[in-house]
Amino acid sequence: MDMKELVLDGAGWTTKDDVYDAFFAAVGAPEWHGRDSDALRDSISTGSINEVEVPYRLVVKNYDRIGPSARGMADDFIDLIRELAGEGCPVEIRADVNA
Question: Which long-range CB contacts under 8 A does 49-54 form with residues at least 24 apart?
């Protein structure tokens, strides 16, 4: 299986919307995409919503530079991706510091 790598740069994330915006840009999400964990779960695992479909590996660069107001959302997003992977969805995530 060919695993695409999608890079998200956390250095400028200051709000939870910054996390959503970065992911949505990376996968080519439609404007109407929901901004909650259920919507993320559906669009990643079910498919037929985003331009880029799994399998892919998300790489969050500059994880250590994510602002405090965005950190909780970023951590929840990472947990969701790991949960989906544990359920057999062909998705991975890695958080890099000072990358």
Answer: 51/27, 52/4, 52/6, 52/26, 52/27, 52/28, 54/89, 54/90, 54/91
